[in-house]
Amino acid sequence: MFAEDLSLFFNSSDFAVAAVFRGTTIVKGILGSAYVEVNGVESSKPVFTCAFSDVEDVMRSDSLVIESIEYKIVAVKPDGTGIAVLVLELQ
Predict the structure, then answer these.
(1) Which residues of the chain have pLDDT under 50?
(2) For residue 22, what pLDDT is reported?
(3) Conformation bin of residue 53: beta by default, left when phi > 0, alpha when psi is -120 to 50
(4) Do 91 and 63 contact (CB within 8 A), yes or no?
(5) Cβ-count burial 55-77 (b if 16+ within 10 Å, e if not)
(6) How far, in Å, are 35, 42, 53, 87 from residue 50 at the CA level?
(7) What pLDDT sits at residue 37?
(8) Nearest to 18 by CA among 54, 58, 44
(9) What pTM was computed for the model?
(10) 7, 46, 76, 88: which is deepest, by most CB within 10 A?
(11) What is the CA radius of gyration of the chain?
(12) What is the pLDDT of residue 87?
């Protein structure tokens, strides 16, 4: 994993938003959507891209609140470069 300062990528004055992780920790990242297919049904799911170091101990079913909307984390996809994509489900 790189020891880079990833805060430049998650600057809230650009595209990033602040999220509350597990009810107390503020994490900056980019909210988007990703294509999913389950049993032939195509859809999209919300995803939150952030620095993996900010959510290293993340677990499936943890909560993430973005702009007063609560999400459950249903999958964690670290990419090996210090970035993680959290697949979310609206609660």
Answers:
(1) 1
(2) 86
(3) alpha
(4) yes
(5) beebeeebebebeeeebebeeee
(6) 18, 25, 9, 11
(7) 85
(8) 54
(9) 0.87
(10) 88
(11) 13
(12) 95
Say how far apart CA 83 and CA 2 lie, in whole Å: 10
Task: Please state, as a whole number, how many other Cβ atoms lie within 10 Å of the Cβ of residue 82.
Answer: 16
Q: What is the pLDDT of residue 42?
A: 94
Question: Angle 82-53-25 (CA atoms, 0-180°, nearest 5)?
Answer: 140
The Cα-based distances of 79 to 1, 53, 76 in angstroms read: 9, 12, 10
Q: Say if strands 17-21 and 25-38 run parallel, antiparallel, or are unpaired.
A: antiparallel
pLDDT for the residue 3: 61
Tokens at residue 24, please? 């107390």
What one-letter code names the amino acid at 40?
Answer: G
